[in-house]
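Proline--tRNA ligase: structure tokens wanted.
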Amino acid sequence: MKQSQMLIPTLKEDPADAEIQSHKLLTRAGYIRQIAAGIYSFLPIGQRVLRKVEAIVREEMEKVGAHEMMMPALEPSELWKETGRWTTFGSELMRLHDRNDREFALGATHEEVITSLVRHEVKSYKQLPLTVFQIQNKFRDEARPRFGLLRGREFLMKDAYSFNESYESLDETYQKMFDAYSNIFRRLGLNFRAVIADSGAMGGKDTHEFMVLSEVGEDVIAYSDTSRYAANIEMAPVVATYEKTAEEPRAMEKIETPGQKTMQQVADYLGHGLEQGLKAILFQVDEEFVLVVTRGDHEVNDVKLKNLFDADIVELASEEDTKRLLGAGFGSLGPVAVGEEVRVVADHAVNALVNVSCGANEEGYHYTNVTPGQDFEVEEYADLRFIKEGDPSPDGEGTIKFARGIEVGHVFKLGEFYSERMNATFLNDQGKANTMIMGSYGIGVSRTLAAIVEQYHDERGITWPANVAPYQVHLLSMNPKKEDQKELADQLYDTLLEAGIEVLYDDRKERAGVKFADSDLFGIPVRVTVGKRASEGIVEVKERTTGEQNELSHDEIVGYVKNWYSA
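Answer:
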């Protein structure tokens, strides 16, 4: 393709709103353009990369017996209401009404749609197992779109769904998909980890996220320093043990603490460490109010709280409800003398504490010398905190360290979450109706493209892995006004195309510096420059990543390129 005929608008400066390298470089190099917050167009060169990522995904899906289809992006609310997710999915679901005031959602995911389809079309165990997938734009009303393609409101996703007759069969499908995902991200050249995760609004229990390691990742991975254990920080269980001190409990005392709101302020004011204070936070868990108590240096893990109560919705109680139920606002809360309307649960670490401080449920006051079991009662102790670096690894090997990651894929064992609610059944070999067992498997295709750039770039631009680069060769004619250069460049362009090599030909009447800068931005792995030695049939070949340069005869170029890509 001749560059003079393409829409590839490059920029010299980073976009003002771009915070991370993938957003900066994909915009500067003319791969994407923002239309509105979180909504992007893929320009021709960006579309080529996107299609190459899609091709790898398709190949690996087909290898494990998944068949491609396409479902509508417009989904009737009735299907979502069957599963209850019309309410529980939250404000990210984009909802709209048609001219007849019928409710719809723009597809954020397609579990309901595919389950509705399969329940009508699949009737017998002979039709199972079945796995289908699609590659389609998805829509989510992100409260704060940011980081370019990493957090958008419209994005390209591969979503697959499996239907099995048993949990054993689901396990087999899940493992095949897990392995396929591993192959996809390896083929894309990514440094990634598969981590234990939470299913969130998707439902189901067992699930893994595929995380590309990156400092700009919004997720924290907890991993063992000596084993292969890795989990999203939300899901990593705490296996630390706590021994109660031999200190005798003292009489609880109420202390005035004017203006002291945070745990650190209270600890400094009372002259003790954070671990000698109690943190109390009021949550609304479905229809109940629950006061969660942790040690002052620990953070409440709301995912663990949700799983403890098997709840649909967990959110912080409002300030109004907090003051009504406990008599004070955040910063002065504690578990002493809590009324019957509020359930009290606590992290395991709290049970080992003696003579600690906590809020007195009165503005500007705290208690000291508080001991669980003596001064307040806990309905249930559970693992309710986030794991910390240095904690023992849950698998018993080594200690926990943290890394940041970009989620690019997620596999779920949904079980009967959707099929039971939507009455998706089949007749087994004895003619008995059984509920289908489901799995769901997603890859953020456009998000993966951005994650690749986060791992493959330098100070000059993008450095694409060979199998997803938009072109294999960037051919530059330094001075098209000179006949010998134009003639050799045109000849090379035709020769490369005839050899089946993808080539972007910079035939523009631009300065050499502009062409070299754009070429570095684009990140095409091999650059061929036709310059001052054109009359001799000699060109310069440069590898984008290593910077290695060679002068070759024009008739050696095809062999060089083919050897480079086959190495």
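The chain has a mean pLDDT of 95. Residues 477 and 530 are 5 Å apart (CA to CA).

Cheers.
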